[in-house]
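We treat protein structure as text, and this decision shapes the records that our systems exchange. Below, we set out a record of this kind in full and without editing:

***
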Amino acid sequence: MEESKKKKTLTLELSGNLDVKSAPKLETELIVAFDEADKIILDFKKVTYISSSGLRVLLSGDKTAKEKGVKLSIINSSSFIMQIFEVTGFSDILDIS
């Protein structure tokens, strides 16, 4: 996970699988980021797979972001990852571009 910050916008560039092994690390990063950023961008350009654990972290993160007034966005999802978001209904819940 690569992190870059520009003013109050934090970009996390994820790579590989977002699964039971990596999801807790993302969750920890998001918890810290919600107190430091007004906008969080998750760059999925290098994400190859997302499991239910990864989806749970995204859903929880989206809920927390809304509660704290932080904008959480997902960018650069592959067609495979977009298909997972669409099948699960996450494309209707999350801000994905």
Notes: The mean pLDDT is 95. The first helix runs from residue 23 to 34. The two ends are 20 Å apart (CA to CA).
